[in-house]
């Protein structure tokens, strides 16, 4: 890892970061992170609060500089103090969590145009870019540009904020929990648009999430960050297939994968690397029709099928975190500072 | 436009007791048993055809919701779900009298929320936890925050310690009692907020999108706490747009554009994915899987709503379980 | 423009240093009162010897509170230039104010250094150091929560005169509670706006218009979220039965024990001694 080839738009090698370095309150956040983002890919970074993912993505556009190790964006080394940081911030569009909180102009159009106008780009071009940016997030330019930013729904505001970054025409779009707090309809809509940006517009997308359904839907590559280092790297399929051997990753699985894993552990020979709903349904149907293993039939694990009170307590993965609490807390304390 | 699922208007009831009686409850039986139980019990919260509009005067007022009725029985777990702007949060704020209806009445344990003299009593009875973990803690130390509600209720100082200990224990935050809240994670802060309510010993806990700003771990923490409280007999009303949280409820109300669009058990609701879809809501993945399997194998129950239920259904069909079930 | 956004991270309001010493465990009301008396007596003491004695007591307080003296010195550091400038000005010009009284060491034009002005300089510098030390011990040994409760307890008599002491204490507590929240929020806003092309503090200082415009992207969102927070907090407080002005009970009760009273009396005795003892010079 860490080696750079021509297709990689962003590479991180052996990156370390410690907050408040050199003070008694020093708090290490990253330990030797290696990561490669090929141009045009869609990469998910998974990790729970305190794993260092926010710290990591803030290195992507130079908000934080490497204390040790290197971040290379399009050939530019961010450890070099002479690097043109404004150019980096333009190339790497970073969208923070709840970006709608940062909207400050009264009119939608003004807020979206803020960045490029600040860069001194001619108005006519800014208008063209804003049209494009609003188009790709699904806001009609003529209808929305003079709308008040305060009288919008949460989903619309988030789109405005996203357009406010896209308007910089970045080559990499980095999103921190892009769908957090949205209702299901807005969430679906936004996910589809991010996917289109990646698949149709060819934008490289990096996103942080802990929603495995989103990861399964969007990502072609997954990095799992745990306690400040990369604990896993692979495709979503590889990740979901590896969860049984890697409880240390502390990653939940989409409910479909949970079903397959539960069946697998009961002796059904199902393919646990499948994760979309139709795939899972296919495996479940095969198992139910007796094609995938007799083990469970020989010995039904719950003993008496007619008394499954646990069946009413919801998906299994929700009960697991109890066992993880001590861990989560220890790390979450670090997160009190917003990482 | 009110499409209430058949049989759903009957009050359903309590978690632990209802589940213990053996089999997977078939729809009919479950509701039947609830009616029997419900009728012998007085509702804790009774919302009678209330409407609420923001603003004054007929020209300027904006209706948040119209003609909503809801009964919450002791020990019940009710979920209210809907898109943003469907009026669900405004409804929640009526349950403890923070807002009072423009039309209709809300009764909490026999008290009208419009009666100002009962305010304190109502707040004690129905506790509410809000969305943002940061914006509901008042004190600089966890245990002082838990004490806040008790101080307001005028609880004698000698009694406070015990209630604070008990509440922090219930949410598993005892070891953090001397910490300042800003050193806690989101899920931990929400647990402190819940402890602050529990110390007031309410009969009902209302969660107003209390998990929507948390990550999946924080959400799991809160759901575990809430589930345990419900099993101990506390009535829960949860306002959410996460379908996965709804599966645990006894009863679900779906709000849409200020009205109750659907009402029923989670099982009944998830059986109509197209309707939920039309209301901008999702069906849990386990339920979608069950429906697709059902399309292939008709004997597979299409109304399984959780991972466990799907797995149990596979066991039933693949193994010898099939003979044991009588439908 | 490397973007050091970590400035807000260093905010530590009331650097409480819990060592569990007797000073830490003292009833905050009595501690505050004793500290106030002690500071008052320091500012009334105008003898060399008295102030040296006062300084010794302050150093003893550090030892008693088991707080390293370096904390006190670091509190002193930012005040040093101020103390120096004040001392020099007093030294050069105060002699005139005292007229011809005392011995004149140096006289040139309007500059006059007399024994009286030397005394003023030395005594006021010592006083300054003593007060900073005393305040440091107080804040390092008392958490903000205790301080608020202490102030509230001391001001309680005013409540009978319809002064909303409790509401005031609650406001202070909430303000303190939200300082770290807003600090983090500010940092996040700066980073987010920088990510979309904003720049902070790069304009020349004389270009006030531009610099003012630069902070708009921060101030407006910050106000917005502050208002949202305030509204939600008010709702949450209401939901927990808070009614402004109603009688409440208090979780934290400070009952001054025998040791607290002894320590307070000792503090009073020291203060009185500092003021009334006949220090020879």
Note down, in words, how this protein is organized:
- The complex is a heterotrimer of chains A (339), B (327) and C (281).
- Chain A has 13 helices and 10 strands.
- Chain A is of the alpha/beta class and 339 residues long.
- Chain A folds into 2 domains: 8-240, Rossmann fold; 254-301, no CATH class.
- In chain A, the strands form 2 sheets. Chain A has a 6-stranded mixed beta sheet with strand order 6-7-8-3-9-10, sandwiched between helices.
- In chain A, β1 and β2 form a beta hairpin.
- In chain A, α3 (108-118) packs across α4 (123-137), α4 packs across α6 and α10 (255-265) packs parallel to α11 (277-288).
- Chain A starts with 7 loop residues before the first strand and ends with a helix.
- Chain B has helices at 15-19, 27-39, 57-60, 88-92, 119-125, 142-153, 157-170, 186-198, 216-231, 243-246, 266-270, 273-278, 285-296, 307-318, 321-324; strands at residues 45-54, 62-72, 77-82, 103-108, 111-112, 126-129, 204-208, 235-240, 251-256, 259-264.
- Chain B has one domain: P-loop containing nucleotide triphosphate hydrolases (Rossmann fold).
- In chain B, α6 packs parallel to α8.
- Chain C contains 10 helices and 2 strands, in the order αααααββααααα.
- The relative contact order of chain C is 0.16.
- Chain C has a two-stranded antiparallel ribbon.
- Helix content of chain C is 68%, strand content 3%.
- Chains in contact: A-B, A-C, B-C.
- Chain B binds chain C through residues 93, 96, 98, 119-120, 123-124, 127-128, 130-132, 134-141, 143-144, 147-157, 160, 164, 180-182, 193, 196-197, 200, and chain C through 143-145, 170, 173-174, 176-177, 180-181, 184, 228-229, 232-233, 235-243, 246-253.
């Amino acid at each position: 890892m860490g080696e750079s080839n021509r297709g990689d738009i962003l590479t991180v090698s052996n990156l370390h970061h410690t907050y408040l370095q050199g003070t008694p309150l020093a708090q290490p956040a990253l330990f030797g992170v290696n990561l490669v983002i090929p141009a045009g890919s869609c990469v998910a970074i998974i990790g729970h609060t305190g794993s260092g993912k926010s710290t990591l993505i803030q290195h992507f556009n130079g908000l934080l500089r490497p204390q040790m190790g290197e971040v290379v964006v399009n050939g530019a080394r961010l450890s070099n103090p002479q690097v043109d940081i404004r150019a980096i911030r333009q190339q790497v569009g970073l969208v923070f969590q709840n970006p709608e909180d940062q909207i400050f102009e009264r009119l939608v159009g003004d807020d979206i145009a803020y960045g490029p106008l600040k860069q001194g780009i001619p108005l006519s071009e800014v208008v063209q870019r804003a049209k494009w940016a609003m188009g790709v997030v699904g806001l009609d330019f003529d209808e929305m540009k003079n709308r008040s930013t305060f009288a919008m729904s949460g989903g619309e505001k988030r789109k405005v904020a996203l357009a406010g970054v896209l308007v910089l025409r970045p080559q990499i779009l980095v999103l921190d929990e892009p769908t957090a707090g949205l209702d299901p309809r807005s969430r679906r809509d936004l996910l589809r648009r991010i996917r289109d940006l990646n698949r149709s517009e060819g934008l490289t997308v990096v996103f942080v999430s802990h929603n495995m359904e989103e990861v399964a839907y969007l990502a072609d590559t997954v990095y799992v960050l745990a306690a400040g280092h990369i604990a896993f790297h692979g495709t979503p399929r590889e990740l979901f297939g590896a969860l049984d051997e890697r409880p240390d990753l502390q990653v939940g699985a989409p409910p479909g994968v949970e079903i397959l894993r539960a069946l697998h552990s009961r002796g059904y020979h199902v393919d646990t690397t499948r994760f979309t709903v139709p795939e899972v349904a296919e495996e479940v149907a095969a198992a139910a029709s007796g094609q995938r293993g007799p083990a469970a039939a020989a010995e039904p694990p719950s003993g008496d099928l007619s008394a499954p009170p646990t069946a009413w307590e919801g998906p299994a993965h929700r009960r697991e975190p109890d066992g993880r609490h001590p861990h989560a807390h220890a790390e979450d304390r670090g997160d009190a500072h917003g990482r | 436009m009110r499409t209430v699922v058949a049989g759903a208007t009957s009050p359903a009831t309590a978690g632990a007791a209802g589940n213990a009686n053996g089999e997977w409850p078939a729809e009919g039986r479950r509701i039947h048993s609830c009616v029997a139980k419900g009728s012998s019990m007085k509702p804790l919260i009774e919302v009678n055809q209330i409407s609420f509009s923001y603003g004054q005067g007929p020209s300027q007022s904006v209706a948040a919701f119209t003609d909503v009725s809801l009964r919450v029985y002791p020990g019940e777990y009710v979920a209210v779900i809907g898109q943003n702007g469907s009026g669900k949060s405004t409804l929640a704020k009526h349950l403890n009298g923070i807002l009072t209806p423009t039309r209709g009445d809300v009764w909490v344990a026999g008290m009208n929320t419009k009666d100002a003299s009962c305010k304190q009593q109502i707040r004690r009875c129905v506790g509410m936890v809000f969305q943002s973990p940061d914006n509901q803690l008042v004190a600089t130390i966890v245990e002082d925050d838990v004490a806040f509600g008790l101080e307001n209720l005028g609880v004698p100082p000698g009694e406070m310690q015990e209630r604070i200990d008990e509440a922090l224990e219930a949410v598993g935050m005892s070891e953090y009692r001397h910490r300042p809240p800003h050193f806690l994670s989101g899920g931990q802060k929400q647990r402190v907020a819940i402890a602050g309510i529990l110390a007031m010993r309410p009969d009902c806990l209302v969660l107003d999108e209390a998990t929507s700003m948390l990550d999946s771990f924080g959400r799991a923490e809160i759901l575990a706490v809430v589930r345990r409280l419900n099993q101990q007999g506390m009535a829960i009303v949860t306002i959410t747009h996460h379908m996965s949280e709804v599966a645990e409820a006894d009863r679900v109300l779906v709000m849409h554009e200020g009205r109750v669009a659907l009402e029923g058990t989670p099982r009944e609701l998830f059986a109509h994915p197209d309707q939920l879809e039309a209301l901008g809501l999702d069906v849990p993945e386990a339920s979608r899987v069950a429906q697709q399997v059902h399309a292939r194998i008709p004997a597979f129950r299409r109304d399984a709503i959780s991972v466990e239920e799907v797995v149990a259904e596979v066991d039933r069909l693949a193994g010898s379980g099939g003979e044991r079930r009588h439908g | 423009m490397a973007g050091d956004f970590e400035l807000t991270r260093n905010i530590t309001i009331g650097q409480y240093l819990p060592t569990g010493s007797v000073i830490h465990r003292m009833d905050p009301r009595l501690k505050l009162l004793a500290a106030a008396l002690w500071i008052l007596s320091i500012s009334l003491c105008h003898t060399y010897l008295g102030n040296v004695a006062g300084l010794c007591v302050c150093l003893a307080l550090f030892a008693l509170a088991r707080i390293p003296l370096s904390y006190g010195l670091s509190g002193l550091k930012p005040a040093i230039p101020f103390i120096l400038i004040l001392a020099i000005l007093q030294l050069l010009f105060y002699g005139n104010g005292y007229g011809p009284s005392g011995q004149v060491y140096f006289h040139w034009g309007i500059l006059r250094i007399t024994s009286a002005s030397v005394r003023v300089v030395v005594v006021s510098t010592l006083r300054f150091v003593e007060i900073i030390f005393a305040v440091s011990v107080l804040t390092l040994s008392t958490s903000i929560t205790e301080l608020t409760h202490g102030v509230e307890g001391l001001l309680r008599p005013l409540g009978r005169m319809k002064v909303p002491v409790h509401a005031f204490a609650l406001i202070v507590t909430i303000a303190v509670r939200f300082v770290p929240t807003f600090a983090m929020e500010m940092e996040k806003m700066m980073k987010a706006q920088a990510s979309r092309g904003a720049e902070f503090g790069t304009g020349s200082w004389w270009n006030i218009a531009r610099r003012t415009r630069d902070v708009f992207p921060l101030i407006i969102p910050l106000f917005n979220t502050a208002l949202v927070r305030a509204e939600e907090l008010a709702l949450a407080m209401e939901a927990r039965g808070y009614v402004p002005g109603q009688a409440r009970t208090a979780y934290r009760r400070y009952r001054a024990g025998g040791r607290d009273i002894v320590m307070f009396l000792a503090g009073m005795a020291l203060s009185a001694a500092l003021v009334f003892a006949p220090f020879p010079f």
